[in-house]
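As the work plan foresaw, the team has encoded backbone shapes as discrete tokens. One protein thus recorded appears below exactly as we store it.

:::
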Amino acid sequence: MDINKRLMEARKALNMPQKDFAKALYISSGFLSDIEKNRRRVNDRFIKLVSMVFGINENWLKNGEGEMFHKSPDEKVKRLVNIFNELPPDFQDFALLHLDRLLDLRNKQKT
């Protein structure tokens, strides 16, 4: 399957009609139709845009490798909460202390 077909597959997985998908990317639905029908090529800039707007994995889009979508932040938060809840209270305090330190370190690097 080529990149143009993977793009169409991702759009369908999002359950979006061409016009809505195109509108979110600030392109015409005709342009998107041409891409999906392999009448237009896509460049890296367009791939990055699609990835950022819809959370589609760039590697999957380019090469068909990996998962179609990036893991959502919600999945990471759920995993973090599950791990945190499995820790005993003193380990939870330790984890929170180090998370606070990581935030402090990040803030110092920004300035």
In short: The chain is about 70% helix and 0% strand. Residues 3-63 form a domain with the 434 Repressor (Amino-terminal Domain) fold (CATH 1.10.260.40). The chain has two domains: 3-63, 73-110. The mean pLDDT is 89.
